[in-house]
Amino acid sequence: MADELLTVAEMGRADRAAMAAGVPGPVLMERAGAAVAAAALARWSPCPVAVLCGPGNNGGDGFVAAHLLAERGWPVRLALLGEVAALRGDAAWAASGWTAPVERLETGVLDGAGLVIDALFGAGLSRPLDGPAADIVGEIGRRALPLLAVDVPSGVRGDDGAVLGCAPRADLTVTFHRRKPAHVLLPGRLLCGEVVLADIGIPDGVVEAIAPRTWENGPRLWGARYPWPRPEGHKYSRGHALVLGGAVMTGAARLAARAALRAGAGLVTIAAPPETVTLYALSLPSAIVLPAPDGAAFEALLDDPRRNAVLLGPGAGPGEALATRVLAALARDRSGVLDADVFTSFAGGLEPLALRLHDRWVLTPHDGEFVRLFGPLPGSRLDRARAAARACGAVVLLKGADTVVAHPDGRAAVTTNAPPDLATAGSGDVLAGLIVGLLAQGMDGFDAACAGAWLHGEAGRAVGPGLIAEDLPEALPAVLRRLKADA
Ligand SMILES: NC(=O)C1=CN([C@@H]2O[C@H](COP(=O)(O)OP(=O)(O)OC[C@H]3O[C@@H](n4cnc5c(N)ncnc54)[C@H](OP(=O)(O)O)[C@@H]3O)[C@@H](O)[C@H]2O)[C@H](O)CC1
Ligand SMILES: [K+]
């Protein structure tokens, strides 16, 4: 499945470009409807079907699918929101191929149905569902009917996966040409069920010309640049991460350091308060633990240019001391990750950092931290992460069940592989450690953030229920082995 995600506007441009290139609208609609019918034939045994059509082209796809399923002998009832005479363009053309009755959109059309095809609204959803559309969506849920959604479950907004009014939960969603953000962002993703991407004959050159800026996060996005150890390499050529250790919450930096090592950093130094050196050293034999009693000592560690990537925040303790160390790290030519307590230390806003941040720095806030840093920005998680990255100049990784990574230049990726088990103490520290480990090996900020988030998700899936953060670094070798085998 292609990884690019097209916005509704970009998809409209793709449609128009295909038509300009000689693929007529009815041909696109015929193929879209045929893909829906094919999906029904592939996943369900013949059964009575209720096809629910809306007043636009999503409904047109429904007419085509209804016709094709009826041709295959499936008992099909079709209901339309509005009048046939009001249909326009390709939808009117599609409706003309349906000679059986067109029912009014009422819940009775569901009686006896073994499958519902939802072709009410797709890309053209413009307001919350109400009236008969909302009634029937509610009834589908009450009856727990199997549902195949055309393009998106009706009520889910294509650009951000938000639900306008209500939307049904589909078992399968058939979408066309490329997926939309709604297929990967929550809550839309959870309502789509399995997503099938159908080729409706829009030439590949069209998407290249549109040059989308949004992807689903996965190895196809960054795998070619993954820093696998080279035969002639040695530990010094694999980068050296510097992790600031805290005095009290020592688990956070330990988890992060271990993850950085597992991600492949050749060396990891923990800059530790003197009284904690033994603790850190005993629990992490492969890390270097050095005392850093004050800011000057930390800066001395930073001054060694071999320590090329820095992690500040996990367990560091918020406040002036941490803020000073962040500014010291940013004053040097390093890459790094800012996480956790850094966001509390700069909760008033990132202005003190703005001029110094650049795209080899990754900020990893969760939603609460994000709002404290950047304010209540409008739009989807994609919009907000993009706006934040643009504003601060660094890569922003907005953590959550649909983690978004955004680059200041507008590129963004949505991570879909994170299991709910990852919502546990210390999980974010591991993520920050993975990213700094990849930065140390020379990956750029966007790639490192994307790869880190994806590896974190895969490690979470490998462990599954019962996961605690300590498991994640240990799950990584098997995940990396598979990644390498597939490369
Ligand atoms: N390449 C492709 O992807 C192709 C996609 N196709 C299909 O076309 C739809 C998009 O079709 P479009 O006509 O642009 O939009 P919709 O069918 O989704 O809906 C527009 C009509 O619905 C009305 N509307 C919108 N929201 C509501 C609502 N909440 N309640 C009632 N009515 C609503 C809207 O009315 P307006 O007043 O806003 O104008 C329109 O009448 C895409 O999703 C694919 O399924 C093509 O078939 C092939 C190519
Ligand atoms: K739909």
From TrEMBL:
Domain annotation YjeF N-terminal: ranges: 11-208
Gene Ontology BP terms: metabolite repair; nicotinamide nucleotide metabolic process
Entry keyword set: ATP-binding, Isomerase, Lyase, Metal-binding, Multifunctional enzyme, NAD, NADP, Nucleotide-binding, Potassium
All residue ranges annotated as the YjeF C-terminal domain in the record: 218-483
Keyword flag Transmembrane helix: no
Coiled coil: none
Cofactor note: Binds 1 potassium ion per subunit.
Molecular function, one GO term: metal ion binding
Binding locations of (6S)-NADPHX: 57-61, 122-128, 151, 252, 315, 366, 429
Entry binding sites for K(+): N58, D118, S154
Co-factor(s): K(+); Mg(2+)
Family annotation (Pfam families): Carb_kinase, YjeF_N
Reaction it catalyzes: (6R)-NADHX = (6S)-NADHX; (6S)-NADPHX + ADP = AMP + phosphate + NADPH + H(+); (6S)-NADHX + ADP = AMP + phosphate + NADH + H(+); (6R)-NADPHX = (6S)-NADPHX
Job description of the protein: Catalyzes the dehydration of the S-form of NAD(P)HX at the expense of ADP, which is converted to AMP. Together with NAD(P)HX epimerase, which catalyzes the epimerization of the S- and R-forms, the enzyme allows the repair of both epimers of NAD(P)HX, a damaged form of NAD(P)H that is a result of enzymatic or heat-dependent hydration. Bifunctional enzyme that catalyzes the epimerization of the S- and R-forms of NAD(P)HX and the dehydration of the S-form of NAD(P)HX at the expense of ADP, which is converted to AMP. This allows the repair of both epimers of NAD(P)HX, a damaged form of NAD(P)H that is a result of enzymatic or heat-dependent hydration.
Protein's name according to its UniProt entry: Bifunctional NAD(P)H-hydrate repair enzyme
Source organism per UniProt: Rhodospirillum centenum (strain ATCC 51521 / SW)
